[in-house]
C-alpha cells in the first residue's frame, strides 16, 4: 500500500502544521501514529505548553523533563503548588528551559516571583505575562526590573502592577516595546514614558486622574499605540496626554460608567476628537451613557455627529449607538466603534439580549439579539422577524427609541410588548412608527396602561395601516370611549382579522360601537371580549349584527354578566348565522332557559364544529383567546341538558360535547344517552362532575351498545360505583369503538375493577383507562394483574391515589414482567415506599415496552431511586424514557416547552450517569434527581454558572455535587440556597472544593446548619455563630479564587470575626465582603481592619447593624484614610454619633477612591452633619451618600444644600422621607 500523503510532506512543512496544534495533540496523538511521525515530532522544537505546576511536580500529568528543557518556546503556568518546596522545585526546572521565549505566570505569589527572577540569569525571554491576583510589592518589582535590565525582553503584561514613579524605577537599558499594567496615575504617565524610551504600545487598565498636574520632562517618546480601560480623562487631560506622544497613531479608550453626564458633553468630546485627534490612523472607543426618563433620547440624534465626513470618509471610523432592552439595563446607551472593544466592567458581554441601535455608516436602525462583540459592518443591520419584549419594564421613553427603530423597519412581522409599563404617550410613539409600516402583522400590547387615550392612538394607526392582521390589547383599562375609537377605525381598516380586548372595562355602549362596525366590516374574523361588562344588552346588540355579518367565525363573551332571558336574542340570531364556528359563553349564568334557546339555535345551525372547551382557570395575565363554545359550569341542570340533547338529534356536525359541572344528574345522563342512540358525529363526550350515579351510567351504557362513533367518554368526579362499572364492562365486551375511558374520582372499588378487567381481556379498542382515586386495594390489583397478563389493547392506565400500596404494587410489578403492550403507568400518591420501588425495579429489568412510569407523591426515597436506576442500567432493551418522581403536568393544553422541561428527567442521563454511587440516601427525591443531572454537567465541565435553589437536594444530592466538583475546571458561580444539605452535605461540598481553582462565588443561604454542624462551608442566614466561624475559617484559607463572601445574619461575634480575619489574612482575590446583621462589635472590627489594611482587592464592604458605635467607627475611619481600592462602604444601623461621623469626615479628606457611603439609621444630628459636610467639600470621589433616618433636622438639610453648591461630584444623596414636607429644594437629591 502507498505511504500516506502526509508522510511524504517535507519535515519543515509538517513542523509548520504543528505550529497550529496544541502540545498535547502533538506529543500524545500525532507522535503515536507511526515511527516516522514520532521521529518528526521529536525534531520539533517550537512547542506551546500549558502546565499546572502541582500536577507537573506530582507527576499527575507527566511531561518529560527533556521536553520542557529543550523543546518548549512558549509556556503558560498555573502556580497551584501547595508548598514552597514544590514551587522551588519547579523554578529550578524552569531555569533550565533553553528555548523558552514566551512565559506566562498565572496565580503566582510575590515570593515565587522574587525567587524566579533573582535566579533567572540565563532565560532569554521575548515576552513575559504576570497574571497574579494581587498587587506586587516594591521588592518584587525590583526583582523583575533587574531581570529586564539583563534580558532583551520586548513585551511585558503585568495585570495588577500599580505603577508608582517615586518608588518604581525602570532599568536604563530596558528595551520594552509593549507594556500592559493594571494601574497608572495621570501625573506619572510622562515619567513612565521617559523611563521607557523604546516603548511603542502602552495598555493600562485603570488610569487615575486625582492629581491634575503632570510633570513634563523633555524627551522624545516612541509611543504609537495607547489603550486605556476605565478611562475617566476629561478633554483637557486627554489633550495633555496626547501632547506627550507625537508619534501616537492608534488610540483605544473605554470610558468609565457615568463619565459623561449629558449628551452635550459627548458632543463636545466628539468635536475634540474631530478637531485635535485627526492625526490618528486608528481610533476605537466605548462610551456608556445613562439617561433619565425626563431626558428624551433619539439614537439617530446621538449618532449624527459621527456621520460627519471626517468619521465616515476621511477616517472610516464607523460608530454604533445602541440600547440593551433589558429591565436592569434599559436606561443605558452604548456608543462604540466597530470593531467592538470589550470593557472589563461590561456585565452583558457575550449575552444575547434584545438590542435596538443605529449605525453611523448608513443611519439605519436595527433590532436584534446580537452580542456587541459579534457586531461587524456586515452583521450590524440584522433585524429579528419576531420581537419578544415581554416583561422588560419598558416605559414611554423607551418606546420612543423603539419606535424610531420600527419606523422604517421592513423585517419584523411580530411584536410582543406584553406586561410592560407603556402608557398613552408610549403608545403614541409606537403608532407614529406603524403609520407607514408595511410588514408588522401581529401586535400584542396586553398588560400595559394604555387606557382610552392609548386606544385612540392605536385607532389612528388602524386608519392607515394596511399590514396588521392580529391586534391584542387585553388588560389595558380600555373603556367604552376607547372601544369607540377602535370601532371607528375598523370602518376603514381592511386587514385586521383578530381583535382581543379581554379584561378591559367595556360595557354595553362599547358593544353597541362594535355592532355598528360589524354591519359594514367584512374582514374581522375573531373577537375576544371576555371579562368585560357588556351584559345582556351588549350581547343582544352584537348578536343582531352577527345575523348579517358573513366573516366573524369566533366570538368570546365569557364572563360578561349575561343572564336569562337575554341570551334568547343571542341564540335567535345564532339560528340565522350560518358562519359562526366558535362561541364561548361560559361563566355567564345561562341556566335552563338559556340552554333551551341555545338548543333551538343548535338545531338549525349546521356549521358549528364544537360547543365545548376544556375548562380552564388561568390568571388574567396568562390568558389567551379561547376558541370554542363552552357549556361547563353554566348551571343548566338536567332540564338544560335535555334541551341541548334534543337539539343534537338534528345537528350533523358537532364532534365534541363538554357539559361538565352542570348538576345534570342521572336524568341528564339519560338525555345524553338518547342522543348517543342516534347521533352519528359525536366522537368525544365529557359530563364530568354532574352527580351521575349507577342509573345514569346504565342509560349511557345501553346507548353505547348501539353507538358506533364515540371514542372518548369522560365521567370523572361522579357517583358511579361497582354496579355502574359492571354496566360498562358489559358494553366493552361488544363495543369496539370506545378508546378512552375516564372514571377518575368515582367509587368503583375492587368489584368494579374486577368487572372492568374481565371485559378488557376481550376488548380490542380501549387504549386508555383512568381509575384515579377509586379505592382499589390488593384485591383490585390482583384483578388488574390478571388483565395485564393477557395481550389486551390497553396502553395507558392511571392508578393514582387508589390505595394499592406496596403489596398491590408487588402484584402489578409481577404483571409488568410479561406485559408487552402497556406503555404508561401512573402510580402517584399510593404510599409506595422503598419496598414497592424495589418490586418495580425488579420487573423493569425484564419489561420491554413501558415508556413512562409516574411515581410522584410516594415515599420511595433516594434508595428507591437507586434501585430503579440500577434496574434501568441492567435492562437490555431500555424502553423506559420517562421516570417521573416529582411534579409534572400532563394536561393536553400544556405548552410544548413546559412539557419538554417537565421531561428533563429522561432516563438516558441517569442510566449512564457517572456520578451515581451508593450514598447516605437522605433528601427529597425531586432534589435528588436534579442533583444527579447538575452533577453530571459539573463533572463534564458543561457549565460555568449553576443555580439550583429550593431543590431540597439533601445531603445525598450534595454528595454528588461535591464528587463532581473534584473533576471540574470551569465552574465559577455556585448557588445552593435552601436545600437542607445539613452537616454531611457541607462535608461533601467542602471536600469537593478542597483543590478547586476556579470557583469565585459560593452561596449556601438557608441550609439548616447550626453552629455545631458548620465544619466546612456556610454562608448567610445559617446562625452558625462564633464556633461555626472557627471551623469555616479553616476552609476559607484554602479557597484561592473566592471573590465574593456573604456572611450576613450568621450570629457572628468578636471571636468569630477574629477567626474570619485570620482566614482572610493571605487572601488576594476577595472583592466583596458582606457581614451585615451580626454582632461584631469594637473588638471584632479591630481584628478585621488590621487584616484588611493589607488587602488590595476589596471594593465593597457591608458592616451595617453590627454594634460598632463611635469607637468602632474610628477604627474603620483609620482604615479608610489609607485604603486605595474600596468603592462602597455600608455602616448603617451602628449607633454612630457626633464623634464617629467626625472620624469619617477626617478620613474622607484623605481617601480618594470611595464612591458610595451608607450611614442610614444612626444617631447623626445637625452638628455631626455640619462637620461632615465641611469635610466633604474637598472630596471629589464620593458620588452616593445615604444619611436617611438620622436626626439631622432641617438645619442639617441646609448644611447638605450648601455642600452641593461646592461639591459637583454627587449623583445621589438620600436624607429620607421624614423631611418630605421640607420646603427647600433638597429631599432625596438625584443629579441627572
From TrEMBL:
The F-box domain is annotated at: 3-51
One annotated Gene Ontology cellular component of this protein: nucleus
GO BP: nucleocytoplasmic transport
Q: Does the keyword Repeat apply?
A: yes
GO molecular function ontology, one term from the record? GTPase activator activity
The answer to keyword Repeat applying to this record is: yes
Q: Which Gene3D superfamilies match?
A: 1.20.1280.50, Ribonuclease Inhibitor
List keywords of the entry alphabetically. GTPase activation, Leucine-rich repeat, Repeat
Matches recorded under PROSITE patterns: FBOX (PS50181)
Q: Sorted alphabetically, which InterPro entries does this protein's record hold? A: F-box-like_dom_sf, F-box_dom, Leu-rich_rpt, LRR_dom_sf, RanGap
User: From what superkingdom does this record's organism come?
Assistant: Eukaryota
Which PANTHER family does the record cross-reference, listed alphabetically? RAN GTPASE-ACTIVATING PROTEIN 1 (PTHR24113:SF12)
Protein's name according to its UniProt entry: F-box domain-containing protein
According to its UniProt entry, this protein's organism is: Adineta steineri
Amino acid at each position: 500500500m502507498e505511504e500516506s500523503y502526509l508522510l511524504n510532506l517535507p519535515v519543515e512543512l509538517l513542523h509548520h502544521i504543528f505550529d497550529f496544534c496544541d502540545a498535547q495533540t502533538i506529543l500524545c496523538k500525532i507522535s503515536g501514529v507511526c515511527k516516522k511521525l514520532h521521529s518528526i515530532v521529536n525534531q520539533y522544537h517550537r512547542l506551546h505548553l500549558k502546565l499546572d505546576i502541582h500536577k507537573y511536580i506530582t507527576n499527575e500529568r507527566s511531561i518529560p523533563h527533556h521536553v520542557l528543557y529543550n523543546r518548549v518556546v512558549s509556556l503558560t503556568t498555573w502556580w497551584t503548588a501547595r508548598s514552597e518546596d514544590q514551587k522551588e522545585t519547579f523554578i529550578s526546572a524552569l531555569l533550565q528551559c533553553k528555548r523558552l521565549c514566551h512565559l506566562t505566570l498565572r496565580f503566582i505569589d510575590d515570593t515565587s516571583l522574587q525567587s524566579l527572577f533573582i535566579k533567572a540569569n540565563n532565560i532569554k525571554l521575548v515576552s513575559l505575562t504576570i497574571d497574579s491576583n494581587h498587587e506586587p510589592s516594591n521588592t518584587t518589582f525590583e526583582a523583575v526590573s533587574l531581570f529586564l535590565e539583563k534580558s532583551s525582553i520586548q513585551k511585558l503584561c503585568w495585570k495588577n502592577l500599580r505603577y508608582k514613579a517615586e518608588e518604581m524605577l525602570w532599568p536604563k537599558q530596558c528595551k520594552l516595546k509593549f507594556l500592559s499594567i493594571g494601574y497608572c496615575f495621570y501625573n506619572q504617565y510622562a515619567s513612565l514614558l521617559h523611563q521607557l524610551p523604546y516603548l511603542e504600545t502602552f495598555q493600562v487598565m485603570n488610569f487615575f486622574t486625582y492629581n491634575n498636574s503632570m510633570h513634563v520632562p523633555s524627551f522624545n517618546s516612541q509611543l504609537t499605540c495607547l489603550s486605556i480601560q476605565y478611562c475617566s480623562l476629561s478633554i483637557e487631560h486627554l489633550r495633555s496626554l496626547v501632547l506627550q506622544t507625537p508619534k501616537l497613531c492608534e488610540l483605544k479608550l473605554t470610558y468609565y460608567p457615568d463619565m459623561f453626564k449629558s449628551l452635550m458633553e459627548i458632543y463636545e468630546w466628539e468635536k475634540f476628537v474631530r478637531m485635535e485627534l485627526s492625526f490618528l490612523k486608528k481610533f476605537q472607543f466605548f462610551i456608556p451613557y445613562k439617561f433619565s426618563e425626563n431626558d428624551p433620547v433619539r439614537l439617530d440624534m446621538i449618532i449624527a455627529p459621527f456621520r460627519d465626513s471626517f468619521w465616515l470618509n476621511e477616517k472610516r471610523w464607523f460608530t454604533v449607538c445602541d440600547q440593551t432592552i433589558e429591565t436592569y439595563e434599559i436606561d443605558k446607551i452604548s456608543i462604540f466603534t466597530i470593531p467592538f472593544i470589550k470593557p472589563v466592567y461590561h456585565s452583558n458581554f457575550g449575552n444575547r439580549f434584545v438590542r435596538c441601535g443605529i449605525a453611523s455608516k448608513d443611519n439605519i436602525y436595527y433590532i436584534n439579539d446580537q452580542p456587541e462583540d459579534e457586531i461587524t459592518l456586515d452583521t450590524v443591520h440584522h433585524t429579528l422577524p419576531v420581537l419578544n419584549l415581554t416583561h422588560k419594564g419598558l416605559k414611554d421613553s423607551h418606546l420612543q427609541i423603539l419606535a424610531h427603530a420600527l419606523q422604517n423597519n421592513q423585517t419584523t412581522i411580530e411584536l410582543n410588548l406584553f406586561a410592560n409599563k407603556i402608557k398613552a404617550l408610549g403608545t403614541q410613539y409606537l403608532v407614529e412608527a406603524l403609520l407607514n409600516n408595511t410588514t408588522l402583522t401581529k401586535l400584542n400590547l396586553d398588560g400595559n396602561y394604555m387606557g382610552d387615550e392609548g386606544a385612540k392612538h392605536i385607532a389612528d394607526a388602524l386608519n392607515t395601516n394596511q399590514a396588521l392582521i392580529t391586534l391584542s390589547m387585553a388588560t389595558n383599562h380600555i373603556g367604552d370611549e376607547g372601544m369607540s375609537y377602535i370601532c371607528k377605525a375598523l370602518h376603514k381598516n381592511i386587514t385586521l382579522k383578530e381583535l382581543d380586548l379581554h379584561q378591559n372595562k367595556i360595557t354595553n355602549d362599547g358593544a353597541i360601537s362594535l355592532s355598528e362596525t360589524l354591519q359594514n366590516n367584512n374582514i374581522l374574523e375573531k373577537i375576544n371580549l371576555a371579562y368585560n361588562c357588556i351584559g345582556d344588552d351588549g350581547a343582544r346588540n352584537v348578536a343582531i349584527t352577527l345575523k348579517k355579518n358573513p366573516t366573524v367565525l369566533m366570538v368570546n363573551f365569557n364572563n360578561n354578566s349575561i343572564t336569562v332571558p337575554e341570551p334568547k336574542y343571542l341564540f335567535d340570531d345564532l339560528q340565522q348565522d350560518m358562519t359562526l364556528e366558535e362561541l364561548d359563553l361560559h361563566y355567564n349564568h345561562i341556566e335552563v332557559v338559556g340552554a333551551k334557546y341555545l338548543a333551538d339555535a343548535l338545531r338549525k345551525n349546521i356549521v358549528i364544529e364544537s360547543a365545548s372547551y376544556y375548562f380552564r382557570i388561568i390568571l388574567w395575565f396568562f390568558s389567551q383567546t379561547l376558541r370554542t363554545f363552552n357549556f361547563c359550569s353554566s348551571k343548566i341542570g338536567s332540564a338544560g341538558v335535555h334541551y341541548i340533547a334534543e337539539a343534537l338529534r338534528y345537528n350533523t356536525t358537532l364532534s365534541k360535547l363538554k357539559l361538565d359541572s352542570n348538576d345534570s344528574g342521572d336524568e341528564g345522563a339519560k338525555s345524553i344517552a338518547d342522543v348517543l342512540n342516534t347521533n352519528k358525529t359525536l366522537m368525544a363526550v365529557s359530563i364530568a362532575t354532574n352527580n351521575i350515579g349507577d342509573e345514569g351510567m346504565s342509560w349511557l351504557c345501553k346507548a353505547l351498545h348501539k353507538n358506533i362513533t364515540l371514542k372518548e367518554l369522560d365521567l370523572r368526579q361522579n357517583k358511579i360505583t361497582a354496579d355502574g362499572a359492571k354496566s360498562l364492562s358489559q358494553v366493552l365486551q361488544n363495543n369496539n369503538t370506545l378508546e378512552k375511558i375516564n372514571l377518575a374520582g368515582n367509587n368503583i372499588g375492587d368489584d368494579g375493577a374486577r368487572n372492568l378487567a374481565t371485559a378488557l381481556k376481550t376488548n380490542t379498542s380501549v387504549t386508555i383507562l383512568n381509575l384515579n382515586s377509586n379505592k382499589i386495594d390488593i384485591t383490585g390489583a390482583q384483578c388488574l394483574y390478571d388483565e395485564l397478563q393477557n395481550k389486551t389493547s390497553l396502553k395507558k392506565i392511571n392508578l393514582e391515589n387508589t390505595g394499592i400500596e406496596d403489596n398491590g404494587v408487588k402484584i402489578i410489578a409481577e404483571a409488568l414482567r410479561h406485559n408487552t403492550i402497556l406503555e404508561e403507568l401512573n402510580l402517584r400518591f399510593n404510599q409506595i415506599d422503598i419496598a414497592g420501588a424495589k418490586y418495580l425495579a425488579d420487573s423493569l429489568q425484564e419489561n420491554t415496552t413501558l415508556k413512562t412510569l409516574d411515581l410522584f407523591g410516594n415515599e420511595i426515597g433516594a434508595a428507591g431511586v437507586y434501585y430503579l436506576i440500577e434496574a434501568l442500567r441492567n435492562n437490555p432493551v431500555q424502553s423506559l424514557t420517562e421516570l417521573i418522581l416529582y411534579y409534572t403536568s400532563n394536561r393536553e393544553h400544556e405548552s410544548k416547552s413546559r412539557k419538554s422541561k417537565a421531561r428533563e428527567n429522561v432516563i438516558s442521563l441517569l442510566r449512564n450517569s457517572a456520578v451515581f454511587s451508593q450514598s447516605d440516601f437522605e433528601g427529597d427525591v425531586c432534589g435528588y434527581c436534579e442533583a444527579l443531572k447538575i452533577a453530571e454537567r459539573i463533572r463534564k465541565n458543561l457549565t460555568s454558572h449553576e443555580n439550583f435553589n429550593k431543590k431540597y437536594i439533601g445531603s445525598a444530592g450534595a454528595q454528588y455535587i461535591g464528587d463532581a466538583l473534584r473533576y471540574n475546571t470551569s465552574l465559577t458561580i455556585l448557588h445552593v440556597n435552601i436545600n437542607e444539605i445539613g452537616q454531611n452535605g457541607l462535608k461533601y461540598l467542602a471536600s469537593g472544593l478542597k483543590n478547586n481553582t476556579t470557583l469565585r462565588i459560593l452561596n449556601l443561604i438557608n441550609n439548616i446548619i447550626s453552629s455545631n454542624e458548620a465544619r466546612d462551608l456556610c454562608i448567610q442566614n445559617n446562625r452558625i455563630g462564633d464556633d461555626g466561624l472557627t471551623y469555616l475559617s479553616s476552609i476559607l484559607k484554602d479557597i484561592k479564587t473566592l471573590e465574593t463572601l456573604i456572611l450576613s445574619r450568621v450570629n457572628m461575634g468578636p471571636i468569630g470575626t477574629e477567626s474570619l480575619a485570620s482566614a482572610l489574612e493571605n487572601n488576594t482575590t476577595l472583592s466583596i465582603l458582606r457581614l451585615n446583621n451580626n454582632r461584631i462589635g469594637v473588638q471584632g472590627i479591630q481584628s478585621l481592619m488590621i487584616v484588611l489594611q493589607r488587602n488590595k482587592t476589596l471594593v465593597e464592604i457591608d458592616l451595617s447593624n453590627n454594634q460598632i458605635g463611635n469607637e468602632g467607627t474610628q477604627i474603620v475611619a483609620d482604615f479608610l484614610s489609607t485604603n486605595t481600592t474600596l468603592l462602597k462602604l455600608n455602616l448603617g444601623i451602628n449607633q454612630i454619633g457626633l464623634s464617629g461621623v467626625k472620624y469619617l469626615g477626617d478620613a474622607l479628606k484623605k481617601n480618594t477612591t470611595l464612591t458610595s457611603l451608607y450611614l442610614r439609621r444612626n444617631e447623626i444630628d445637625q452638628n455631626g452633619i455640619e462637620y461632615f459636610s465641611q469635610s466633604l467639600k474637598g472630596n471629589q470621589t464620593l458620588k452616593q451618600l445615604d444619611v436617611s433616618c438620622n436626626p439631622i433636622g432641617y438645619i442639617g438639610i441646609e448644611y447638605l444644600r450648601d455642600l452641593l453648591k461646592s461639591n459637583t461630584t454627587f449623583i445621589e444623596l438620600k436624607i429620607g422621607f421624614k423631611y418630605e414636607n421640607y420646603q427647600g429644594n433638597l429631599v432625596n437629591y438625584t443629579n441627572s
